[in-house]
Amino acid sequence: MGMYLNPNNNSFMKSRKNSIYVDKSLLIKQLNQIIGINDCFVCVSRPRRFGKTEDANMLIAYYSKGCDSSSLFDDLKIAQCDSYNEHLNQHDVIYFDVKRVLRKVSTVDEFINLLTRKILEEIKYIYPDEELYEDGNLVLSLENIYAKYNQSYVFIIDEWDCIFREYKNDIDGQKKYLKLLEDLFKTSPFVEMAYMTGILPIKKYGTQSALNNFDEISMINANPYEEFMGFTETEVKELCHKHQMDFNEMKSWYDGYHINQYSLYNPRSIVSAIKKRLYDNYWTNTEAYESLKDYFCINMDGIKESIISLLAGEKIYIEPSSFENDITTFHSRDDILTLLVHLGYLGYNFQTQEVYIPNREVRTQFELALRDSHWAELMKPIQNSMDLLNATWHMDEEKVAYYIEEAHLEISNLKYNSEEALAHSVDIAYFAARGFYHKMVELQTGKGFCDIAYIPKGDKPALLVELKWQDSPECAINQIKEKKYYKSLEKYLDNLLLIGISYQKDINDNEYKNHYCKIERFKL
User: Fold this and answer.
1) SS3 (DSSP) at 517
2) What's the pLDDT at 33?
3) N or C terminus: fewer CB in 10 A for the chain?
4) Which residues of 498-513 are buried (b: 16+ CB within 10 A; e: fewer)?
């Protein structure tokens, strides 16, 4: 039993003692299927605080010969599986946390030397025959041990990509580190299984992964490990019921990572909200937030427009395959947005290849990071949106029309040829409303469907918005009244604004657009 070879189960034991524990042990069942076969290499990348280290500690406790963990697993789901006893504490495990080792050194070379030396020291304690070892060469030493004793290992590596984040400009050091991993895991007979965790997928050079024998599981494509990428909606519902928390409010704050059939939540945020009995920003108040501002300020075509659209609730198509899986190499807007998916600041729909801001917690920090970035080009639409909201509350029709036109001009590629185009501009213009309202599109009410309804979260007036293309805002207001769109908002009738927004092409200039607005306070 050591730090690197066959660690104990103390870390997982602490997790089991937590007042809030979610059973993710079926991950073990998935991994037991690949032990000892050719395809025994898995790299799972997901954002900070999404449970990577907890999973690594669980795997150590289960596989390591350095402990007896039956009391920790006998009541978990994995204990009902056929492979449970076959692998429970039956494997020699080599484990290291890259981030922890890096704290003890100042260069990548020192990291490699220290890691190699520490692992060999513990292995030599088990096999003291000096003839087995090549001085300072971990891979050759493991090959010699395998040749004599048929000894193989399960490798568990936490924060595998930390070197690419901490030494992002040390290209030579990164290549040396990758060379060590390649030597360990490519055609090595002493590997029973290798499981790595990180925030970033494996580094690519061009289109080729540096470790192309690994099955890469990420926020882009997590098949078949989707349910282990965070807390599932079922698990969150059970926690809310057990701890008497409002699931709908929890969902509003923290839902939004949709991977295939699973809706996933950030474990750190859920646990913190339950412990403190308060819905707030928890996960985003980590070191990743500090770097978020820098990515917004990269001078790349389309970034400004994309961020504005995302804040307006839009989904944006990206091509993620060109991303080289580091935090310095960006060839396009899509590379930056793909990185934000891996960091957890954007959700991703695999089927449509669209990104979006996943939930209220992330949206709040998104806006704060933009303000702190001092990006003047983005500060203007953010301030305009807040001014538009204030103008709406004060029923200033001219200002509302002005700010909606400004929002349209921010998106230069938007073509006005339908009511849907107007709706897009209104979405962008009113993105600040998401801090005060729940937005409902095509809300069924009265004798039809209202275009947009903003349901207040607090004491602000409810808003019913009807849009018209090549017609008047007065016509939009009349439609709200005639079709009684307010029927589904009866609890807000004493504080409800009816808003008609239209645009009309100038007959003398086909490219010029005029926005018009009419606002009335609802009266029975």
Assistant:
1) strand
2) 97
3) C
4) bbbbbbeeeeeeeeeb
Dihedrals phi, psi of 236, to nearest 5 degrees:
-70, -40
Q: Which amino acid is at 144?
A: N
Q: Are the C-beta atoms of residues 350 and 277 closer than 8 Å to each other?
A: no
Confidence tier at 242 by pLDDT (50, 70, 90): very high
Strand 204-205, strand 215-217: pairing: unpaired
Q: How far apart are the first and last CA of the chain?
A: 77
455 membership: H or E segment, kind and range: strand 448-456
**The token pair that represents 210 in the structure block:** 């540096």
Residue 416 confidence (pLDDT): 61
Give the span between the Cα atoms of 337 and 344, in whole angstroms. 11
Q: How far is CA 210 from CA 217, 328, 497, in A?
A: 15, 17, 58
Considering only 77-81, 129-133, 495-499, which range has the smallest mean pLDDT?
129-133
Amino acid at 190: F
Residue that is written with structure tokens 């990269």 in the block: 298
| β-sheet bridge partners, residue 438 | 455
105 Cβ contact list (under 8 Å, min separation 6) = 111, 114
Mention every residue, 6+ apart, whose C-beta is less than 8 A from residue 38. Answer: none
Nearest of 164, 169, 162 to residue 53 by alpha carbon:
162
- The closest alpha carbon to 296, from 375, 368, 206, belongs to 375
d(CA 49, CA 44): 14
Task: Say what the alpha-carbon torsion angle 89, 70, 44, 92 is, to the nearest 10 degrees.
Answer: -10
pLDDT value for 271: 96
The two three-digit tokens of residue 81, written as one number: 């599986």
9 touches 69 (CB < 8 A): yes
Is the CB of residue 295 less than 8 Å from the CB of residue 275?
no
In sequence order, what are the beta bridge partners of 503?
A: 469, 515
